[in-house]
Amino acid sequence: MARCTLLSASLALVVSMGLLLLSDVNALCNMTADPSGYTRTGSDYTWLAMPQDATIEDCMLQCCVDARCQAFSFNHGAKVCTQAPSNATVCCALKDATPPAVPSSWNKSEVVTGAKEMAPAGIPKLTDPRLLDYLDMGLTQFMHFSVTTFGNIEHDCVNGKCLPASMFNPTQMGPDKNGITATDQWVLTAKAMGAGEICLTAHHEGGFCLFETKFSNYSVMQSPYKQDIVSDFVASCRKHGIRPCFYMGPNANGYFTQYAFGIMWSARCSTTHPKSFTMHKWECLQKCSPTTVLLVVCGGITT
């Protein structure tokens, strides 16, 4: 397939006026010439005859305007232009790949090579507005509050025994004399440290729910407190302009399974009442807008 060797009208005008410098081409085309003593070798170059007064910038521009070109070689002399048409003594070779620059004995007055700078592999351009919005949000604060807060252990259920819901009995949830509730304080603290989001353990591994639910009798509504903390939490987030997030762990719902924690953990999501957990997710999401992030831990993997 023949290569396009014509520059755009604007570039051609700049070149014909002698105004285009090597630095201009580097900036315009993201091209880089190799340092003295290094060249790029290889076969399958496409060779172009160039005018006697052609410069390296002219060759770089030929590669620049060709979408397939990744590397170039600008050559002076019949012995290095043997594959160029019309017995040219000044030539430009273009290649669809990027061979490495290696030490060379070629004189820079005879051969100068270079290549387009390519973006690092494996780093895709981020275009999803939801992902960009989430990255711009910045820090997330994790907020652990459950029946375990009153049991001095990490998990609601251990070795087949669960902390009773009656143990959950916060007495300082407010509001105080200034109308500030405990959930307001959580949110204001998160904002003070620069968080754009606060993530609450709405349903920890043991199964205790901080919200009113129709699908379990292990929740705040079976405790002396009897108030939906998730609803209060979301209201505080909306009031103070921070994004709410829920942590929900289906991988070890001890209240339903009543198994030893190690067994519950290895069981993962498939054996721990997925229908009930799905309904818990639905109940929580009804309290928030669709922008709420749902953090689910399944078998130790965050999704």
Give a verbal description of the structure:
- This protein has 303 residues and is α+β, with helices and mostly antiparallel strands.
- It is built from 9 helices and 14 strands.
- It has helices at residues 9-16, 22-29, 56-64, 129-137, 182-192, 229-240, 254-257, 261-267, 274-285, and strands spanning 31-33, 38-40, 46-49, 71-76, 90-95, 101-103, 111-116, 139-143, 157-158, 161-162, 195-203, 243-248, 293-298, 301-302.
- It has a 5-stranded antiparallel sheet. Strands 8-11-12-13-14 form a 5-stranded mixed sheet.
- Helix 2 packs parallel to helix 3 (56-64).
- The longest helix is centred in the last third of the chain and has 12 residues, at 229-240.
- The chain is rod-shaped and about 95 Å long.
- The protein starts with 8 loop residues before the first helix and ends with a strand.
